[in-house]
Amino acid sequence: MYRVAVMASGSGSNLQAILDRLHHQVAGVEVALVVSDVPGALALERAERADIPTAVFPVHPHVTREERDRAIADAITAASADLIVLAGYMRMLTPPLLERFPWRVINLHPALLPAFPGTDGIRDALEYGVKVTGVTVHFVDEGMDTGPIIRQESLTVGEGEGRVSLGERIHALEHRVLPRVVELFATGKVQPPERGSRLVRVDDSEPSRIDW
Ligand code: GRF
Questions:
Q1: What topology is assigned to 2-111+137-152+174-202 in CATH?
Q2: Ligand 1 mean position, distance from CA 207 (Å)
Q3: Atom of ligand 1 nearest to the CA of 109
Q4: Atom of ligand 1 at shortest distance to CA of 135?
């Protein structure tokens, strides 16, 4: 089994896409744990509905970010996760977590990085007036959406298109791109960059086994 831990703060529609398209279906992928910082997040309900263990680490005034991340890393280690997928996890990660899982933490971002990093890439791209935007999956480092890029897919912004419509189209694209990237990891097709480089090699030559 290729064990995946998903971290999510919100609705978890991307977690759902992984559950619907990969979990126990393709490439031996199993979602082994769902982690959230938000008690009651819809993502946790989705996990519980699918009988997947959950762990919640709310922010606490007397606990540092590093201490929280160490506790999260312990939970992920206990779940024997091979890959950690941030799917709408709204906090930056610190070294005590990242150093435990080198090249094993990835994030999904709703814009074409390095353009429009941050918490609302869809709005920022729209307000800037771009004609093409898209989604990015990248390795996570200590920066804000700065790690090496694994995969990007684009879409054309419609003339006069608004936030709601663009948001729906971006999410639909995410729901295809993220499961595909997890499949590529599970089948050993992603090679992290060599020292001093940002170039991630992805062998996308075999068709996906996901039933879209
Ligand atoms: C996605 O748009 C993702 O790109 C961003 O947060 C959103 C999460 O959506 N990082 P959901 O919770 O999976 O529905």
A1: Rossmann fold (3.40.50)
A2: 25
A3: 4
A4: 4
Write down the pLDDT at residue 94. 98
Nearest CA to ligand 1 atom 1: 88
Other C-beta atoms closer than 10 Å to the C-beta of 157 total 17
Q: Give the tens place of pLDDT for each residue, 14-26.
A: 999 999 999 999 9
pTM value is 0.98
Q: Please give the mean pLDDT across all residues of the chain.
A: 98
Q: Where are the domains of the chain?
A: 2-111+137-152+174-202
